[in-house]
Amino acid sequence: MSTAPVSRRSGGRAARHLARSNPLEDHLRPIRPGMSGGLYRPLSDDAIQRIHRGALDALWEIGLADPPESGIAAMTQAGAVLGADGRLRFPPSLVEDALAAANRDVILHGRDPIHDLDLSGNRVHYGTAGAAVHLVDIDSGDYRESTLQDLYDAARIADTLDNIHFLQRPMVARDIEDPREMDLNTLYACISGTKKHVGTSISEADFVQDAIEILHMAAGGEAAWRARPFASLSCCFVVPPMKFATESCQVMEACIRGGMPILLLSAGQAGATAPASIAGAILQAVAECLAGLVYVHSLAPGHPAIFGTWPFVSDLRTGAMSGGSGEQALLTSGCAQMHQFYGLPGGAAAGIADAKLPDMQAGWEQMCSNVMAGLSGLNMVYEAAGMHASLLGFCHESLILGDDIIGQALRCVRGIEVGEDDLSLDVMRATCLGGPGHYLGAGDTLGRMQRDYAYPALADRSSPKEWAEKGRPDLLANAKARKEAILATPARARLDPITAQAIRERFPIHLP
Amino acid sequence: MSTAPVSRRSGGRAARHLARSNPLEDHLRPIRPGMSGGLYRPLSDDAIQRIHRGALDALWEIGLADPPESGIAAMTQAGAVLGADGRLRFPPSLVEDALAAANRDVILHGRDPIHDLDLSGNRVHYGTAGAAVHLVDIDSGDYRESTLQDLYDAARIADTLDNIHFLQRPMVARDIEDPREMDLNTLYACISGTKKHVGTSISEADFVQDAIEILHMAAGGEAAWRARPFASLSCCFVVPPMKFATESCQVMEACIRGGMPILLLSAGQAGATAPASIAGAILQAVAECLAGLVYVHSLAPGHPAIFGTWPFVSDLRTGAMSGGSGEQALLTSGCAQMHQFYGLPGGAAAGIADAKLPDMQAGWEQMCSNVMAGLSGLNMVYEAAGMHASLLGFCHESLILGDDIIGQALRCVRGIEVGEDDLSLDVMRATCLGGPGHYLGAGDTLGRMQRDYAYPALADRSSPKEWAEKGRPDLLANAKARKEAILATPARARLDPITAQAIRERFPIHLP
What we know:
CATH architecture of one domain in chain A: Alpha-Beta Barrel
Oligomer: homodimer
Number of strands of chain A: 20
Number of helices of chain A: 19
Helix content of chain A: 40-55%
Largest sheet of chain A: 9 strands, mixed
Structural class of chain A: alpha/beta
């Protein structure tokens, strides 16, 4: 629409190029992990209260079925009531006790402290998650079974991407059949691929001791592990609607004893395992996570736990999951507000594509929920990159492109500064009244290009002419080239060789 | 994550299919034009006040250069002050008078009243706009010069898409060299391609009379036109920073006399023709549009005008425009709040891709600003579909896919209802306590699948297995097939033959 004045333009351009070539100090970077969101508020204060009171009602009137014996003992001791129908019910006062005692200062540690995540307030962090069973091959379009090597490669790629702040295990290593070996290898692949915080799951309580032993060895001993636990348990402790997942609860108990932070994960699916209404699905997830909070409280008050309301969406025409929908973005954003209401560190799912390949649909689906989750101030945005086919497929190239998507979302989370300097009246006066009549070479512009503007790594902003001259660069081909370059360089996050060797001698590690 | 129970599943599925096959009454449609946004508020109340006061300061201290003689006469009569430097300055009291007298009940009419747009409150509408000079061919990847036929085809396609609520001319008919013929043919192609509201631009005041005559003929006479003006003038009345576009102002004056609603369009580019800071670019756009409002007020108090703050973004590394950036989404959303502060109907740009083709980048870019614009409650989201290469290229297939993107954004705008029924406690009780233990066949689920869930037309949600069985449907190929199907059916919005013939006899219409 507007045409930029051309006078002095090349001079301004050279100055901008010079300015941009100087590396930025960290505090000047335009986007960072942990920027604060919260300016998008899909729920009114009254709506939040109604959902909260409804969740309390559900916990007292409906309660949860299938608690393990150990959980019954701990929670009834704390004040829960076991009904004749086998359901455990929670009086509001017990929930309020658990809320009062909950840990609100959770730091999720990285193996390198530079990657520590502070989950207070409305600070936003993005990372992977999931249990995809396929790796998506962008050249053939094939969905093939995902392997341990795929998982390790994902961890290595994520380690290099600035806007992927943590690595929760996104794929299942289907080439490892033994469940114990799968859990241990999954953990090993994640922590040797990245120094960022790792989330993983453990399928049986009997495996926990081995996993904790690997973590002790990687940390340099139990004390070091407990001081800075760099891996958390992703724990589907409920089977919605309103039933405990008996075995997962036992895993959780063992991990709490082992000092692992717990992601209390309630993954209902609206219209299938949760109410079809957005508010109802949020309410049920909140109720279930409050039950999880009581559970943690009854065992170890103040143990670090993440309020993991992860309601998903059904496409009600088929009953299949639709993680890429607008309804999903609303569910996740509404959950973020409930976390803030409780003042608890919270997480939910966003960034999922229903698209099978990293195409235009994948782009719009991944951005919609990622940016809304960030704007709503969600502490932990899980599943944020690489996820396709409603969580069934993971794609390395898509993970790399997700770094650009999340960078853009983070720029939106950062928002609009309106200090005196930002209003720019002085710059306007100097420009319009006897000045050059444009802002291209202004000192204010040069400064802001570094501090204020986020630049994508792979997204192409060239003109059609430049683009044609460059041979029409292809987004996916460029992502693939970057993947190959990352994987061709030595793994920078690997465990020191002595530790790695010790773990390999002690446990059946399949990674070459 | 969660696994839906399978018992009774096929029965529920059949019931859902049956329910979905009944057409919905209009008031039950899950998404509609004019849903109200506003729950995303990037600017605090204090920030809004600061920007407003800064804009008043800019109008009084800096003023605008290059007003036409006619504008000087009208605006100084109203209270503006012409300086010795040729700049017209506006005392705050004059701006406040113009704000007080502004038309707040603007309806943008369609040629069919079913397409009328009510711009009050935070009601959100999406449509095309722009002046792309290329049509994007998705098969070859070529950017070729856009033609009048391309424009007419775009209008015909837009006419069929539920989530494209208006058609502002998105492309330039480069096959028509004579400027007058180009303007008249552009108008004719738009109004004969769709019965939705049309926006267009006129390049010289001398052409306005002809354009108005076409509108009179299409409406069935001047009185009918003036009662329901179904075309508005997209008017770049300023050349940022802070200069009137002399000739465009003269066009505006003539169109006001002719009864056309005016889009007061200020299209600065942050870092080039507007300050580099987001807040500063918004402030300058607000100041310029307030000047435009004074201009309209001085000529015809209460004439329908849209507050068109359209600040764009520079990629400051190159000075080139980046319409697909997060900074763009913030600019547009911040502007929406300023419109609401003034209580004026407003518009801004969103949905622009920098990507040259409808690829993953295009998807995330188009969604980011479209959904944020909607959540911020922008009345008129211009450029919302089909736009590539930072406004240089328009793509018919992308326009069609944009209908899905905007549908999803509108679902997000609709938000989360939290009535008693939405909390779903009764459904939870019935499901969990002696019920089936899932929600698949519940009456609540069946009802909500129609009322609450938006379904995309082309986005694929099938499982990898179904997708492979369907032959891996390609998003762009499906969009192209839909385009061809639309263009193969008779144009449903065309003017009646007698009117069309009369216009063709009177004016050199090039459309076959």
